[in-house]
Amino acid sequence: LDVDKKVAGVLVLAMDVSERARSNQFLAASEMRLRLAQQAAQIGSWEWDPVENTRILSEQTHRMFGTDPNADQAEVFRVWTQRIARADWPNVNLAMAECQRTGVLDLEYRYDHPEMGLRHHHTKGRRMMGNSRFFGVVSDITDRKRVEQSLSRQEAEFRSLADAMPQLVWI
Fold it and tell me: What is the pTM of this model?
């Protein structure tokens, strides 16, 4: 504006944000593919910092745990610990303590999902980036465990039958 408050000129500042927009679209598509792959594979991802006492769980991990992604981290952890099978808790607790020393976490445990019932989870992770933070995945291995248990029962039945028979059994 000039001294008479009339427009004396116009300043226009323009920036080409096409590259940023393309990058954002690529990132959004990549994140969607990751979410879909995690759902298909029944694998969730997580980050844990035992020093800062923080945990970040993927959407799929929250689904696998039946926890609220909007809940406080401490509440999610409390719910998770309560749902681990009591008989498995000592091993889980020991593995978590041991992983702080070694930097490696690899454990299986049973988990009581509020809607899906008893599930079997396999968690694997490592300390990364030279600090206290761990990154890893949790897999739902319930189907595999059911097959293993069924095969184990069938093998026990066969052995029992074979041991009871006086002659050799050939298969």
Answer: 0.72
